[in-house]
């Protein structure tokens, strides 16, 4: 993708977010949005990325800019820091549905881009038994990749998936994330490799407040 096209898409992201976001490009595992300092960071890869993948990164993080409340995120994580990975996944479900509804032209870009990410093994699932993943990781993959991943849920897991997909407000996201977190504590074990599937090595924010970033 040319530098000119990249600059045009950066400007489009600011228009979509209806504010003058700071947009940076650097070597990071995945895109993120610093909800406190209003910084949208997009990763640079060794190989050039497609316009569709760039649209996904920008569209997803603009979704956070428009919908994820700083005060709500900050206060929730102050109460329970370990909830962040669960909040990220459930909030991703909500904001992606919202941004695709607001800007419906992004639907095709998102679909093609997630194909590209699967080919790049972006989620690190190549060779893994997806049925053995924790529920939050299953929800993350199903809601982002759809039928590209063959994951079967039991009745209880299906109810949690539906709960995540039904979230309309931040308060509902917090309730859902807490419910999945409590279920996971009682029924599952997650190691560091599992956490990378949804957490993707969150970098520190512009002023060092890691908790103020969403992916």
Summarize this entry quickly:
The protein has nine helices and four strands. The protein has 215 residues and is an alpha+beta fold. The longest helix is centred in the middle third of the chain and has 19 residues, at 84-102.
General description of the model:
- The protein has 215 residues and is α+β, with helices and mostly antiparallel strands.
- The chain has nine helices and four strands, in the order αβββααααααααβ.
- The protein has a four-stranded mixed sheet with strand order 1-3-2-4, covered by helices on one side.
- α1 packs parallel to α2 and α4 crosses α8.
- The two termini are 23 Å apart.
- About 4% of the residues have low confidence.
Low-confidence stretches: 199-206
Sketch the topology as an H/E string, one letter per element.
Answer: HEEEHHHHHHHHE
Q: How confident is the prediction overall: mean pLDDT?
A: 86
Strand order of the largest sheet: 1-3-2-4
Decide which structural class fits the backbone. alpha+beta
Distance between the termini: 23 Å
Q: Can you give the helix content as a percent range? A: 55-70%
Number of strands: 4
- What share of the residues does DSSP label as strand, in percent? 5-15%
Helical element count? 9
The largest pleated sheet is described as: 4 strands, mixed
Coarse morphology? globular
Radius of gyration equals 16 Å
Task: Give short descriptive properties of this protein.
215 residues, alpha+beta, 4 strands, 57% helix, 7% strand
């Amino acid at each position: 993708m040319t530098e000119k096209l990249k600059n045009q898409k950066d400007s489009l992201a600011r228009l979509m977010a209806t504010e003058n976001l700071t947009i940076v490009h650097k070597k990071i595992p995945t895109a993120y949005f610093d909800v406190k300092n209003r910084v949208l960071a997009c990763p640079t890869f060794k190989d050039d990325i497609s316009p569709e993948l760039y649209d996904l990164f920008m569209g997803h993080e603009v979704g956070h800019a428009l919908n994820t409340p700083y005060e709500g995120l900050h206060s929730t994580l102050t109460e329970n820091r370990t909830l962040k990975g669960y909040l990220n996944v459930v909030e991703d479900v909500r904001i992606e549905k919202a941004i695709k509804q607001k800007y419906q032209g992004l639907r095709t870009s998102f679909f093609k881009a997630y194909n590209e990410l699967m080919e790049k093994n972006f989620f690190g699932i190549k060779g893994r038994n997806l049925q053995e993943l924790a529920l939050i990781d299953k929800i993350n993959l199903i809601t982002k990749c759809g039928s590209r991943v063959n994951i079967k849920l039991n009745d209880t897991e299906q109810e949690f998936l539906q709960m995540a997909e039904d979230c309309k407000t931040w308060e509902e996201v917090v309730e859902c994330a807490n419910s999945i977190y409590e279920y996971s504590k009682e029924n599952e074990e997650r190691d560091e490799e599992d956490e990378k599937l949804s957490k993707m090595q969150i970098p520190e924010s512009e002023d060092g407040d890691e908790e103020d970033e969403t992916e």
